[in-house]
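[job 0412] stage=fold_complex status=start
inputs:
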Amino acid sequence: MANVIRRQTPAARLGRGLLYGVLILAALFYILPLVVMLMTSVKPLSEISAGSLLSFPQNPTFAPWTKAWGEACTGMRCDGVGGYFWNSFAIVIPAVLISTTIGALNGYALTKWRFKGSELVFALMLFGCFIPFQVVLLPMAQTLGWLGISSSRAGLILVHVVFGIAFTTLFFRNFYVGIPNELVSAAKLDGAGFFRIFWRILLPVSAPIIVVSVIWQFTQIWNDFLFGVAFSAHNTQPVTVALNNLVNTSTGVREYNVDMAAAMIAALPTLVVYVLAGKYFVRGLTAGSVKG
Amino acid sequence: MRDSLPMKNTSATPLGAGAKRSTPSGGLQAWLPRLVLAPSVAISLFFVYGFMLWTFVLSLTSSRMLPSYDFVGFGQYSRLMANERWWVASTNLMIFGVLFVLICLVIGSLLAILLDQKIRQEGALRTIYLYPMALSFIVTGVVWKWLLNPQLGIQAMVQGWGFESFRFDWITNPDMAIYTLVIAAVWQASGFVMALFLAGLRGIDDSIVKAAQLDGASLPRIYWRVVMPCLRPVVFSAVMILAHIAIKSFDLVVALTGGGPGYATDLPATFMYAHAFTRAQIGLGSASAMLMLGGVLAILIPYLYSELRSRKHG
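[job 0412] stage=fold_complex status=done
writing structure:
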């Protein structure tokens, strides 16, 4: 849009100045909590109680980070959030890979092999994007028990796959709808089968949507708290649950620097993904959320 | 964003169907797509629709610690209606939801319009506005709990600047704590609304705006009268997503206020969790979950309806 004609009148200059002023103020609103979190996480406790939020660390120390990683108490245990950080990875990686693979095949079958009722199948699955998960918690707990995987990583992986495929199917379906059908039809005439066409024609052009799907699923599952807190035991907790326990464990002095370091640890993987692949992150958010 | 509309371009059927019959292994090939979809359909039928029904059944029983199946009709729903804490939670959701959606829309659209004025470093600013959306609500809650802490946070900082009488202790005040949830949630999600609006703005045809400019309309007037009406679908999507986030809000409450002081900041999602998992009230918890589902459907159905209608007309 941008139709500002740059006249160098004083009024126009004032307007530009004001514009940048507002934008920078807004940027401060978003960035300052992160800055405070980071600065607090490297201050000794004495400096926190004596100084103010925005005072620069005088004697930066990495001790809160090592404590948050390996020694801080999360509930009954005092071994930091490090183990739970790896727990999260052990849950997230299989769940992302499985749900993305299933979503890709679903999206392909729904667009390039349409059959009577395929639109209905899609609508049926899409509904899974919208439900409030509270409505599945209790039956899920019982089902995981029957399957013998309650409070296990396998159970959490299953839950995330089950409720992730609605989103991944949506992503891939909407992407494959835009791929011309001519190539697929020609391949079908040549006698190529379902998986061969997928492997040779669709998959080579799918890189962008795979990235979107992987990033979306990664952030969703990494940031999950509800399923994590409902379906995990102390040794299978994801890092979000451990962080919440750490912050709410009341033993002696509140160590705000350790809290902030633990929060940084829990936030880092998704922040790194966002910084490295922000473009795809935005695309996933808009594609996923406009319909989901 | 246009690409994300489901169910467009349905011209594939005749070609695909014709080709299938001519392949040697036509029988299996015709069934393969359905076989591939079958597990997902089964999962969806069982884990989504089956579980919804199951929760509904539980909500009709007197289940407490464990699910039991002695039915009490809609007794749990009338207990819920008589439960003061449920009303606090529902009222909180109204306050939180309305403020959260409105403020996000205002901030998001304003930032998008300002960013759309050929700004230097637009990419960097956009990244900064949007990054909170990558964080977990638990992280957001932990950070804002620290910022809002009256002894060490923002209140203490401003008092330290010499404004001794400055008060910002909402998080410990039962009447004001709900607004701290709004602040933290707006911080997290408004950048995302900005991204939605910016994408919408970039999709608008320049010539409409140029024409309005030639007519001598001022810039604010052009945005209000010409551009905003074009963005109605974006507003609609944003409202829908934000309302959905609001109804599902659970982690933020747990991390920021723990539902407190007392149960002053309880939301239906935390109410449901507390009753179903820690207070041994499975029947009552299920009833509250069903009402949450009803709330989501109440915003979802008009949305889907208008989507389908606009597709028929467009």
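[job 0412] summary: Chain B touches chain A through 119 residues (CB under 8 Å).
[job 0412] exit 0
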